[in-house]
């Protein structure tokens, strides 16, 4: 019922407030032994991303945004082929073992998977999803401290080992006051959330011992028979994963549900055996999934069948089946304990549309987190209902329509932003109008040894990953729903051969060289906006004369990290001055 669901939401809100309060009391303070994580480890996709993460974490510690006296470590995947978050987990364990040796057996470590180019959320590509801002807290929260807040109660209830989690999801849960989520059993212990069956098809699903239920406590411990990775609904039914929802399970209205995965813990002994496996395997040459490939080996009913199923693997690798079988034999018989968080919610914020929805529209989410419409911003007044302004300076005469997010930006006199858009790290000149449904993001790059700026623009719904085999198939790529060949004609570029950066056999919006390189942040935004307006209005507006054109992929390879962080610091300073802080 609606009132039941509201009561559950209120419980989540109260529990979340308490966790945020606890983390706030630790921000900028030296933590006591055993009070917090010994190590906060973050994974990165390569050396350049690692450097970006390290610089940002150092700055956050200096600004008292994170607890002090904790070891913050960033580990990058080795160069070469993709190894997946499972591969990253194995290498992170190895790095930690190299650094701490024997001492590691007494440490509590949180391992946050944050590697990747964030192609579905390009505003986070340069600086990382783990540093996405959220509109709450003072100083304003980023995803990193939000994750730390949600798990703030865990370290003190945990035997030495590793908590494995992802950078772009948020789990909210409430438990009875006298109880604790504890990680003190051998093997793996996973958090589980009741979800509709449709959600189960894109997640991991736990199969539990069948039992009769008359009511549901907020939290209970169970042991898992086996784990299914992204199963079909038929597979869930055949495996006995589907639970009947008798007399109302907290905020679940569906008559049936499954328990899906999120974050899990492994004790030190289990981690140690995975580490031995890595030494035995030698350098990895395929993608391993930290959920599918580890957890499917667990539980008394686990079978080897999954090791041969490479249907949802990006590149079928002959090596993968062999590695999965080795992991299976190594982990077989390891217990998989599950903590059923019956009043919990799992939110994913990995795409531009999810970001917009959760920050501007989703009343439940905004209520549970106490999100603001404006955080750490100047002149973000009541004209902006239904949108979200963070870390920005706006002129009082600006207008931003509902459903839009403005972050790390400056908007001058008379600027208007249409609904459902994302404006990220932009400096928008007076009087400009940004259309609805637009994604615009300015990156700082080094071009011909000069500091330069590129503003990329896409439609919120555009698929940057979709690729065609060669530039002859341009019309299959859609920018704002218009085929790319048509867009080129609006920019007077129909007679030139469009360049694609990187691998020539894959042409996508991600590596299409469309965006002009400019010498200033403001002129960069204006130039790109003119090109965007031309395709939307059907007029012609070529890019600035003699401007080099870059792709999003180019921008990341040539990003000028120091300059981007310097611009953020300047913005931070200006906001503080204007807010009189």
TrEMBL record:
Record's keyword terms, sorted: Nucleotide-binding, Transferase
Limits of the GDP-fucose pyrophosphorylase domain: 102-519
UniProt GO BP: GDP-L-fucose biosynthetic process
InterPro entries named in the record: Fucose-1-phosphate_GuaTrfase, GDP_fucose_pyrophosphorylase, Trimer_LpxA-like_sf
Domain of life of the native organism: Eukaryota
MF terms in GO: nucleotide binding; transferase activity, transferring phosphorus-containing groups
Gene3D superfamilies: Hexapeptide repeat proteins
Name of the protein in question: Fucose-1-phosphate guanylyltransferase
Organism field: Poecilia formosa (Amazon molly)
């Amino acid at each position: 019922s609606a009132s039941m669901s509201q009561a559950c939401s209120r419980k989540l809100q109260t529990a979340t407030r308490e966790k945020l309060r606890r983390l706030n009391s630790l921000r900028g303070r030296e933590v006591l032994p055993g009070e917090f994580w010994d190590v906060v480890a973050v994974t990165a996709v390569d050396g350049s991303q690692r450097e970006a993460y390290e610089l940002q974490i150092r700055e956050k510690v200096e600004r008292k945004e994170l607890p002090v006296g904790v070891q913050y470590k960033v580990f990058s995947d080795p160069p070469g082929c993709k190894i997946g978050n499972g591969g990253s987990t194995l290498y992170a364990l190895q790095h930690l073992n190299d650094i701490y040796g024997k001492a590691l057996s007494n440490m509590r470590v949180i391992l946050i998977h944050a590697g990747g180019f964030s192609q579905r959320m390009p505003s986070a590509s340069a600086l990382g999803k783990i540093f996405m801002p959220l509109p709450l807290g003072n100083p304003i929260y980023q995803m990193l401290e939000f994750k730390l807040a949600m798990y703030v109660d865990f370290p003190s209830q945990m035997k030495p080992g590793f908590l494995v989690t992802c950078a772009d999801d948020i789990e909210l849960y409430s438990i009875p006051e006298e109880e604790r989520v504890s990680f003190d059993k051998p093997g793996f212990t996973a958090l589980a959330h009741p979800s509709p069956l449709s959600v189960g098809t894109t997640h991991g699903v736990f199969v539990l011992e069948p039992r009769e239920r008359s009511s549901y406590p907020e939290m209970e411990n169970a042991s898992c028979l086996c784990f299914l990775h992204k199963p079909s609904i038929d597979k869930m039914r055949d495996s006995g994963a589907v639970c009947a929802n008798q007399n109302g399970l907290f905020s679940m209205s569906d008559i049936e549900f499954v328990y899906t995965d999120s974050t899990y813990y492994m004790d030190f002994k289990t981690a140690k055996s995975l580490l031995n496996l890595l030494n035995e395997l030698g350098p990895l040459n395929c993608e391993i999934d930290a959920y599918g490939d580890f957890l499917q080996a667990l539980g008394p009913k686990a079978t080897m069948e999954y090791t041969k199923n490479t249907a949802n693997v990006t590149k079928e690798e002959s090596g993968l089946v062999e590695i999965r079988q080795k992991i299976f034999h190594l982990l077989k018989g390891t217990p998989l304990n599950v903590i059923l968080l019956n009043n919990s919610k799992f939110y994913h914020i990995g795409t531009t549309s999810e970001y917009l929805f959760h920050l501007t529209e989703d009343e439940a989410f905004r209520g549970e987190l106490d999100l603001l419409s404006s955080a750490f911003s100047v002149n973000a007044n009541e004209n902006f209902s239904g949108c979200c302004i963070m870390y920005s300076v706006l002129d009082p005469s600006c207008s931003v329509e509902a459903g839009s997010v403005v972050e790390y930006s400056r908007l001058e006199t008379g600027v208007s932003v249409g609904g459902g858009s994302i404006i990220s790290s932009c400096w928008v000149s007076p009087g400009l109008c940004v259309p609805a449904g637009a994604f615009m993001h300015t990156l700082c790059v080094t071009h011909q040894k000069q500091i330069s700026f590129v503003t990329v623009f896409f439609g919120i719904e555009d698929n940057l990953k979709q690729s065609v085999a060669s530039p002859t198939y341009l019309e299959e790529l859609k920018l704002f729903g218009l085929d790319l060949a048509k867009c080129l004609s609006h920019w007077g570029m129909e007679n030139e051969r469009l360049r694609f950066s990187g691998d020539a056999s894959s042409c996508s919006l991600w590596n299409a060289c469309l965006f002009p390189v400019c010498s200033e942040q403001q002129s960069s935004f204006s130039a790109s906006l003119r090109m965007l307006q031309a395709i939307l209005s059907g007029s012609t507006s070529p890019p600035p004369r003699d401007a080099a054109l870059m792709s999003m992929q180019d921008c990341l390879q040539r990003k000028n990290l120091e300059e981007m962080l310097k611009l953020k610091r300047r913005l931070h300073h200006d906001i503080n001055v204007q807010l009189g802080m």
